[in-house]
Amino acid sequence: MSRLSHAFGLLLGALMLCAALLLLAMVALVTADVLIRNLGGGAINWANEVTEYALYVMTLLAAPWLLRQGRHIRLDLVLALVPRHVAWVMEFSADALGFLVCLVLVRYGAIMTLDSWRIGSITIKNLVFPEWWLLVPVPAVFALLAAEFIFRMHRLYGGDRTRRNDATSAG
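Above: the chain's sequence. Below: its structure in token form.
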């Protein structure tokens, strides 16, 4: 299981690298658009739209890595106040709930994507393309998040019956 977890971590790291490169490309595009406009060359008409889509894709690409690193948003005040074994149960329960929620979102994301593909929905702004292109990352990323919740529960179950090291920002 540890080898599989390590390989999965490498995959999530590669996705995070893609998110970072996408951010770099987005910064370059916005800079070029502002520079061209200020030099009187008009504007890159599709730049705003592409940066909107890039923010969406970056969020999805980064989410599983952030969960693995324990850098996701969490309210940890209660974990710092309860006994360590209670914090462990709360951690495990939260991971199990997160896993179940991700499975539901995989299902509905897949249904949404397939429906969009089946009826031929298109996105029409400056760029025109099939809507399902925007939807297909949703079930894929939530499947990755579900897998990470499994790895989190495995790591937590195999460790000490206490809160995670990354669980609290206060002692």
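The first strand starts at residue 122 and ends at 124.
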